[in-house]
Amino acid sequence: MPRPAIIFLAPWLLTATTMMAHALGDNEGAADVPLTGDTVAHFASVDEARKILTKRDRFVAAQSPWDRQARLKSAGDVSVDEYLKFVSGEVIAWSDADREKIVDAIAKVRERLRIWSLPFPRQVVLVQTTGKEEGGAAYCRENAIVLPRGIVAGRSAEGLERLLLHELFHVLSSHNAALRQRLYTVVGFSYCGEIALPAELAARKITNPDAPTIEHRIEIDVDGEPIAVVPILLADSAKYDAAAGREFFAYMKFRLLAVAKDERGHYTPRLRDEKPWLIDPAATPSYHDKIGRNTGYIIHPEEIIADNFTLLMLGEEDVKTPKILDDIRAILRQPADKK
């Protein structure tokens, strides 16, 4: 979720024109485009896309009732079945013009990734939607990258290249748990097991499809005391206002939830004044000291690393915390069996 925003054909022999013709050969999007190594980018047909988006995966399982209400802009409760029916209806077919823009962006991304040996899945699926199902944002569902029509039409070539690199990191991360954990440690996060939220927070949790679970902690300094916290997205209102019809981003508040080990060794929320202890990251310099200052997209280690991965792939050098890029580079260059 950006902020509110291939088969390796011995072919370097394939010309851009040949690849374009291959990719545009079927309006229902059956064509594959080389991405990197043995991975292809596949333009999903409408039927393929609907099967992907209606799968009861970890994103769907993690949703709160508020999540579904806000996505459908409903005043009443929304069932999982109703949500999945809604998402299915937002899938659209790839137009030739939109596919051509993405193929051009993939060609640039492919060149960026050429020198790396990254364990992507054999297929990365490209899905297009109206964007209404996720506030107009691009996002991932397992090995699928979902691109709203408005983003494809409105982004520059450079913007699409950056977006694809960011979303490709989410695919890489979701398919390589050990690699994901090592990369998260670069910005101070470690696995702590999924945190069970108290009812008052669970009811208004906002779920990011790129990082749907709350299971990584970071230790920060609060008034001289080391505190373990997990990042959490919450709606600032207990009920979605269907009459206003705003996107869920308008309600989103990013907070750090303090956690501690219980007698069983499990991390659970800490209370302060008999309420879950929520810390404002904007007023917590130690959080930023740990995660670096290369990106403002700091709501989860997944997004922090995705933005830093993008900077690394683009060869950016003018960053505020270069050590993060150096550490990510070192991890990604290790042999596959150590990742």
List keywords for this structure.
single chain; 13 strands; 5-stranded mixed sheet; 19% strand
List the topology elements:
Blueprint: H1 16-23, E1 32-36, E2 39-43, H2 46-53, H3 58-62, H4 65-72, H5 80-89, H6 96-113, E3 123-129, E4 139-141, E5 144-148, H7 149-154, H8 157-174, H9 177-185, E6 189-191, H10 199-202, E7 216-222, E8 225-235, E9 252-261, E10 267-269, E11 271-272, E12 275-276, E13 278-279, H11 285-291, H12 301-313, H13 322-332
Helix pairs in contact: 1-6, 2-5, 6-8, 8-12, 12-13
Count of domains:
2
User: What is the average per-residue confidence, as pLDDT, rounded to a whole number?
Assistant: 91
C-alpha end-to-end distance: 24 Å
Oligomeric description of these chains? single chain
Proportion of beta-strand residues:
15-25%
Low-confidence stretches are 4-30
**Global Rg:** 20 Å
What's the main sheet like? 6 strands, antiparallel
* Helix content, binned percent: 25-40%
SSE run: HEEHHHHHEEEHHHEHEEEEEEEHHH
Shape call: globular
Please report the number of helical segments: 13
Structural class: alpha+beta
Number of strands: 13
